[in-house]
Amino acid sequence: MSVFEVIGLLSTVALFSPVVIILAKRLIHYRCYFILFIYCLLSFIYNLMTQEFVPVPKNIERGWGLMNNLLDVPLMMTFLLLFGKSPKQKKIMMILTIAFVCFEAVIVSLYGVSVKHYHIMGPGLALVLLFSISFFIHRVKISITHQKAAGKAVMAAAILFAYGCFSLIYIIHYILALPQVNEIFLLYFIATIVYSTTLSIGLIIEHKRIKKLQELQVTRKELMEFFGESDPATPKKDIADSWRFN
Q: Is residue 233 part of a domain?
Protein backbone atom coordinates (compact mmCIF):
# COMPACT_ATOMS: atom_id res chain seq x y z
CA MET A 1 0.00 0.00 0.00
CA SER A 2 1.15 3.53 -0.76
CA VAL A 3 1.41 6.24 1.90
CA PHE A 4 -1.72 7.83 0.43
CA GLU A 5 -3.69 4.57 0.80
CA VAL A 6 -2.43 4.02 4.36
CA ILE A 7 -3.50 7.50 5.44
CA GLY A 8 -6.85 6.96 3.70
CA LEU A 9 -7.30 3.71 5.64
CA LEU A 10 -6.38 5.40 8.93
CA SER A 11 -8.90 8.17 8.27
CA THR A 12 -11.62 5.57 7.65
CA VAL A 13 -10.79 3.76 10.89
CA ALA A 14 -10.73 7.09 12.74
CA LEU A 15 -14.17 7.99 11.37
CA PHE A 16 -15.54 4.73 12.76
CA SER A 17 -14.22 5.34 16.28
CA PRO A 18 -16.95 7.86 17.32
CA VAL A 19 -19.58 5.42 15.98
CA VAL A 20 -18.21 2.63 18.18
CA ILE A 21 -17.92 4.86 21.26
CA ILE A 22 -21.47 6.23 20.91
CA LEU A 23 -22.79 2.67 20.69
CA ALA A 24 -20.54 1.19 23.38
CA LYS A 25 -21.22 3.98 25.89
CA ARG A 26 -24.95 3.99 25.04
CA LEU A 27 -24.88 7.67 24.20
CA ILE A 28 -27.06 6.85 21.21
CA HIS A 29 -30.08 7.07 23.55
CA TYR A 30 -29.63 10.85 23.63
CA ARG A 31 -30.92 12.86 20.69
CA CYS A 32 -27.80 14.95 19.98
CA TYR A 33 -25.49 11.96 20.19
CA PHE A 34 -27.85 9.95 17.99
CA ILE A 35 -27.54 12.73 15.40
CA LEU A 36 -23.74 12.62 15.72
CA PHE A 37 -23.88 8.85 15.29
CA ILE A 38 -25.75 9.23 11.98
CA TYR A 39 -23.34 11.98 10.87
CA CYS A 40 -20.23 9.88 11.55
CA LEU A 41 -21.76 6.70 10.11
CA LEU A 42 -22.65 8.41 6.82
CA SER A 43 -19.11 9.79 6.51
CA PHE A 44 -17.58 6.42 7.41
CA ILE A 45 -19.60 4.58 4.76
CA TYR A 46 -18.71 7.20 2.15
CA ASN A 47 -15.02 6.81 2.99
CA LEU A 48 -15.34 3.06 2.52
CA MET A 49 -16.76 3.69 -0.94
CA THR A 50 -14.26 6.32 -2.08
CA GLN A 51 -11.31 4.25 -0.84
CA GLU A 52 -12.81 1.19 -2.56
CA PHE A 53 -12.81 -0.88 0.62
CA VAL A 54 -16.44 -1.56 -0.31
CA PRO A 55 -16.64 -1.63 -4.12
CA VAL A 56 -19.90 -0.12 -5.39
CA PRO A 57 -21.03 1.26 -8.77
CA LYS A 58 -19.93 4.84 -9.37
CA ASN A 59 -23.52 6.11 -9.50
CA ILE A 60 -24.17 4.76 -5.99
CA GLU A 61 -20.93 6.29 -4.70
CA ARG A 62 -21.82 9.62 -6.28
CA GLY A 63 -25.38 9.52 -4.92
CA TRP A 64 -24.14 8.73 -1.41
CA GLY A 65 -21.64 11.57 -1.64
CA LEU A 66 -24.35 14.02 -2.68
CA MET A 67 -26.61 12.88 0.15
CA ASN A 68 -23.71 13.11 2.60
CA ASN A 69 -22.95 16.69 1.54
CA LEU A 70 -26.59 17.78 1.71
CA LEU A 71 -27.09 16.30 5.19
CA ASP A 72 -23.74 17.44 6.58
CA VAL A 73 -24.68 20.91 7.82
CA PRO A 74 -28.23 20.11 9.06
CA LEU A 75 -26.92 17.15 11.07
CA MET A 76 -23.98 19.05 12.54
CA MET A 77 -26.11 22.09 13.40
CA THR A 78 -28.56 19.78 15.19
CA PHE A 79 -25.72 18.19 17.15
CA LEU A 80 -24.38 21.64 18.07
CA LEU A 81 -27.65 22.29 19.94
CA LEU A 82 -25.93 20.30 22.70
CA PHE A 83 -23.58 23.27 23.18
CA GLY A 84 -26.26 25.99 23.11
CA LYS A 85 -25.83 28.64 25.78
CA SER A 86 -29.53 29.42 26.20
CA PRO A 87 -32.99 28.37 24.94
CA LYS A 88 -33.05 31.54 22.83
CA GLN A 89 -29.79 30.66 21.10
CA LYS A 90 -30.97 27.10 20.49
CA LYS A 91 -34.16 28.46 18.94
CA ILE A 92 -32.11 30.71 16.63
CA MET A 93 -29.96 27.72 15.65
CA MET A 94 -33.05 25.66 14.84
CA ILE A 95 -34.49 28.48 12.70
CA LEU A 96 -31.19 28.85 10.83
CA THR A 97 -30.99 25.10 10.28
CA ILE A 98 -34.54 24.96 8.89
CA ALA A 99 -33.78 27.98 6.69
CA PHE A 100 -30.65 26.25 5.38
CA VAL A 101 -32.59 23.07 4.60
CA CYS A 102 -35.11 25.19 2.66
CA PHE A 103 -32.19 26.83 0.83
CA GLU A 104 -30.88 23.37 -0.09
CA ALA A 105 -34.32 22.34 -1.32
CA VAL A 106 -34.56 25.43 -3.54
CA ILE A 107 -31.11 24.85 -5.09
CA VAL A 108 -31.82 21.16 -5.71
CA SER A 109 -35.26 21.91 -7.20
CA LEU A 110 -33.78 24.55 -9.54
CA TYR A 111 -30.64 22.73 -10.65
CA GLY A 112 -31.31 19.13 -9.72
CA VAL A 113 -28.75 16.89 -8.07
CA SER A 114 -25.75 18.21 -9.97
CA VAL A 115 -22.48 20.01 -9.41
CA LYS A 116 -24.55 23.07 -8.46
CA HIS A 117 -25.14 21.53 -5.03
CA TYR A 118 -21.58 22.53 -4.12
CA HIS A 119 -22.81 26.13 -4.07
CA ILE A 120 -24.75 25.12 -0.96
CA MET A 121 -21.66 23.99 0.92
CA GLY A 122 -20.04 27.42 1.29
CA PRO A 123 -22.79 29.09 3.38
CA GLY A 124 -23.25 25.86 5.33
CA LEU A 125 -19.58 25.58 6.25
CA ALA A 126 -19.54 29.24 7.30
CA LEU A 127 -22.61 28.70 9.49
CA VAL A 128 -21.14 25.72 11.35
CA LEU A 129 -17.74 27.40 11.63
CA LEU A 130 -19.17 30.54 13.25
CA PHE A 131 -21.11 28.59 15.87
CA SER A 132 -18.22 26.20 16.54
CA ILE A 133 -15.89 29.16 17.22
CA SER A 134 -18.39 30.62 19.68
CA PHE A 135 -18.98 27.30 21.45
CA PHE A 136 -15.28 26.46 21.60
CA ILE A 137 -14.46 29.76 23.34
CA HIS A 138 -17.44 29.38 25.70
CA ARG A 139 -16.71 25.77 26.66
CA VAL A 140 -12.99 26.36 27.17
CA LYS A 141 -13.81 29.24 29.52
CA ILE A 142 -16.18 27.02 31.51
CA SER A 143 -13.66 24.19 31.57
CA ILE A 144 -10.85 26.43 32.85
CA THR A 145 -12.90 28.57 35.23
CA HIS A 146 -15.15 25.92 36.77
CA GLN A 147 -13.06 22.80 36.12
CA LYS A 148 -15.96 20.97 34.47
CA ALA A 149 -17.44 20.04 31.08
CA ALA A 150 -13.99 19.31 29.65
CA GLY A 151 -15.51 16.72 27.32
CA LYS A 152 -17.66 19.30 25.58
CA ALA A 153 -14.67 21.63 25.27
CA VAL A 154 -12.68 18.87 23.56
CA MET A 155 -15.59 18.04 21.23
CA ALA A 156 -16.03 21.73 20.37
CA ALA A 157 -12.31 21.92 19.58
CA ALA A 158 -12.62 18.89 17.30
CA ILE A 159 -15.56 20.39 15.39
CA LEU A 160 -13.85 23.77 15.07
CA PHE A 161 -10.70 22.12 13.71
CA ALA A 162 -12.69 19.95 11.30
CA TYR A 163 -14.78 22.72 9.81
CA GLY A 164 -11.80 25.05 9.65
CA CYS A 165 -10.04 22.42 7.52
CA PHE A 166 -13.18 21.66 5.49
CA SER A 167 -13.59 25.38 4.75
CA LEU A 168 -9.97 25.55 3.59
CA ILE A 169 -10.48 22.50 1.36
CA TYR A 170 -13.67 24.05 -0.05
CA ILE A 171 -11.81 27.25 -0.96
CA ILE A 172 -8.89 25.36 -2.53
CA HIS A 173 -10.96 22.84 -4.48
CA TYR A 174 -14.15 24.67 -5.46
CA ILE A 175 -13.30 28.38 -5.45
CA LEU A 176 -9.64 28.40 -6.51
CA ALA A 177 -10.17 25.14 -8.46
CA LEU A 178 -6.58 24.00 -7.96
CA PRO A 179 -5.75 20.77 -9.82
CA GLN A 180 -3.86 19.03 -6.98
CA VAL A 181 -6.66 16.56 -6.18
CA ASN A 182 -4.48 13.98 -4.38
CA GLU A 183 -2.97 16.65 -2.12
CA ILE A 184 -6.46 17.93 -1.29
CA PHE A 185 -7.62 14.41 -0.41
CA LEU A 186 -4.50 13.94 1.71
CA LEU A 187 -5.35 17.11 3.64
CA TYR A 188 -8.90 15.81 4.10
CA PHE A 189 -7.65 12.45 5.39
CA ILE A 190 -5.25 14.04 7.90
CA ALA A 191 -7.93 16.47 9.09
CA THR A 192 -10.35 13.55 9.50
CA ILE A 193 -7.86 11.56 11.57
CA VAL A 194 -7.19 14.47 13.95
CA TYR A 195 -10.86 15.48 14.14
CA SER A 196 -12.26 11.98 14.72
CA THR A 197 -9.62 11.08 17.31
CA THR A 198 -10.18 14.31 19.25
CA LEU A 199 -13.96 13.89 19.02
CA SER A 200 -13.68 10.34 20.36
CA ILE A 201 -11.62 11.54 23.33
CA GLY A 202 -14.24 14.20 24.03
CA LEU A 203 -17.03 11.61 23.90
CA ILE A 204 -15.24 9.38 26.41
CA ILE A 205 -14.66 12.29 28.82
CA GLU A 206 -18.27 13.48 28.46
CA HIS A 207 -19.60 9.96 29.06
CA LYS A 208 -17.71 9.84 32.36
CA ARG A 209 -19.35 13.14 33.37
CA ILE A 210 -22.81 11.85 32.42
CA LYS A 211 -22.22 8.64 34.36
CA LYS A 212 -21.23 10.60 37.48
CA LEU A 213 -24.34 12.75 37.18
CA GLN A 214 -26.50 9.65 36.81
CA GLU A 215 -24.97 8.19 39.97
CA LEU A 216 -25.58 11.49 41.76
CA GLN A 217 -29.23 11.46 40.69
CA VAL A 218 -29.66 7.92 42.01
CA THR A 219 -28.03 8.89 45.32
CA ARG A 220 -30.30 11.92 45.70
CA LYS A 221 -33.35 9.83 44.90
CA GLU A 222 -32.36 7.29 47.55
CA LEU A 223 -31.84 10.08 50.10
CA MET A 224 -35.25 11.55 49.24
CA GLU A 225 -36.88 8.16 49.81
CA PHE A 226 -34.95 7.62 53.05
CA PHE A 227 -35.89 11.00 54.53
CA GLY A 228 -39.39 10.94 53.07
CA GLU A 229 -38.99 14.07 50.96
CA SER A 230 -41.73 14.69 48.40
CA ASP A 231 -39.97 17.36 46.33
CA PRO A 232 -37.11 16.52 43.99
CA ALA A 233 -33.66 17.61 45.10
CA THR A 234 -32.84 19.11 41.73
CA PRO A 235 -34.84 20.33 38.74
CA LYS A 236 -35.69 17.66 36.20
CA LYS A 237 -33.18 18.43 33.50
CA ASP A 238 -31.67 15.90 31.17
CA ILE A 239 -28.05 15.30 32.08
CA ALA A 240 -26.99 15.25 28.43
CA ASP A 241 -28.72 18.57 27.69
CA SER A 242 -31.15 16.82 25.35
CA TRP A 243 -34.09 14.48 25.65
CA ARG A 244 -33.49 10.78 25.90
CA PHE A 245 -35.05 8.01 23.85
CA ASN A 246 -37.11 5.60 25.95
A: no
